[in-house]
Amino acid sequence: MADAARTTGTDGNDRPGPTMTASVGRPADTDAATAPGPVPAGALPRVLIAADKFKGSLTAVQVAEHVTAGLRRAVPGLTVEALPVADGGDGTVEAALAAGFERRQKHVSGPLGAPVDASYALRGETAVVEMAEASGLRHLPEGVRAPLTATTYGTGELLRAALDAGARRIVLGVGGSATTDGGAGMLAALGARFLAADGQPLTPGGGPLAGLVTADFSGLDPRLAQTVVTLASDVDNPLTGPTGAAAVYAPQKGADEGDVAELETALAHYAWILEQAVGPQAAEYARAPGAGAAGGLGYGALVGLGARFRPGIEVMLEVLGFEAALDRADLVITGEGSLDEQTLHGKAPAGVATAARARGLEVIAVCGRLALPPESLGRAGIRRAYALTDLDPDPTRCMTEAASLLERTAERIARDFLS
C-alpha cells in the first residue's frame, strides 16, 4: 500500500459542445458515429472525472472509463472529460501519461538490487518520477519484506535517466516504498558517497546507516543544481521520532519492534553525519514536513537534491492541467478506493474538491468504501458520495467486481444529477 496518510474560465458559450467519446487527459473528441443519439448543444452539463485509483481493483484510468460508461448508459451523448489524478504515490506516472506525457522506460536496480523495468513520464523539460516504480513494495517477491536492507538506488537511477533525457523540472512522487534508507541509495546513484569506518561504501539499506562515518556530496550530478525538484507526497512526517519514517511506516514494510528501533537509531545517526557534511540545515530538514516520506527518501531529496516539499495532489493537479479542465466543466466527479479521515488530509479527492469548489463547481465522489459522515464531506467540498458497498455490502465482491459496480453507481449519479 502507499505510505499511510499524514499525521499531521471561459463562460458557457465558449465551451465545447457535447461530444460522444471520452478522452483521457484532454477534452473529449466528437465522434458522431458512436453517438447513441443526437444531443442539442448546451442541453447537458459537461462532466469532468478526476478520480484516483481504487487500490487493488482499478487504476485511475479504469475508474474514469467505467464511470464514463455508466454515465453514458444513463445519458447518451453526454460530454465527459477524463483526467485521472494521483497524489504522488502509486499511479502518479500513469496519471501523467494519461494527461499526454510520454512514457520513458529504464532498467534500474530494484529494492533488493535485482534489475527491474521502471517508467517515468516526460513532457518537454518536465519529468514525473514515481519512486515506487523503482523502489516500491510491488517489486518484492510475494511474502518477502526487507525493512533493513531495501534500497532506493533504483530511484536515483531513474532520476539520472530523466536528467539524461533533458528534464530540468522533476516532480518526484513518493509512496508505496519498500525502503527505509533515508534516500541514501538514491543519492549514491546520483554520485554521493556514503562510507564506513574502513573507507568502503556502506552496504545498501537503512540498517547499515548506523555504521556511516563519512558522507561526501562533492560528486553529486552537477545537473541537479540547474534542476527544480519537487517532492510530491501526501504525508508530512519528519524523519525521526514517534511520527517519523521508522516508527510509522517501517512496520508496513515488514519491520518488527526491534527493526523499528534499529532503523530509528540508524536514521538519527545518518542525519547527524549529514549535518557534519553539509551544515546545520541538514538537522532542520530532518524535522521538516515530508522528510519521513517513503522511508526517509524525502529527507534525502531535501538535503541532497535541493527539493521543495509540496502536497502531492496540489503538484499533480498543476502538472496535469486541472485548472484548464475545470474551465470546461459543469460538474466534477472525483473519488478513490476508501473515503475516510485520511482523505481529508492531502489525498486526491480532497484536493480536487477544494480546487473545484473554489471555482463554484459541484463535486460528487465515488468510492469503494465510505467512512465519512455527510458533514465532513460537505466541509471538504463534496456534495455527495456514492460507495460501491451501497450496492453490494460484501467487501470482497466490491474489490473483484468493482468495474461493473462502478458503472451502476455512475448510472445512479446520472439519474440524480444529470436528469
TrEMBL record:
Region spans: Disordered: 1-39
Alphabetical list of InterPro entries matching this protein: Glyc_kinase_flavodox-like_fold, Glycerate_kinase, Glycerate_kinase_RE-like, Glycerate_kinase_sf
GO molecular function terms noted in the UniProt entry: glycerate kinase activity
Gene3D superfamilies registered for this protein in UniProt: Glycerate kinase, domain 1 (3.40.50.10350), Glycerate kinase, domain 2 (3.90.1510.10)
Composition bias type Low complexity, residue spans: 26-39
Pfam families attached to this UniProt entry: Gly_kinase
Keywords linked to the UniProt accession: Kinase, Transferase
Enzyme Commission (EC) number: 2.7.1.31
Recorded family membership: Belongs to the glycerate kinase type-1 family.
Protein name per Swiss-Prot or TrEMBL: Glycerate kinase
Highest classification ranks of the organism: Bacteria, Bacillati, Actinomycetota, Actinomycetes, Kitasatosporales
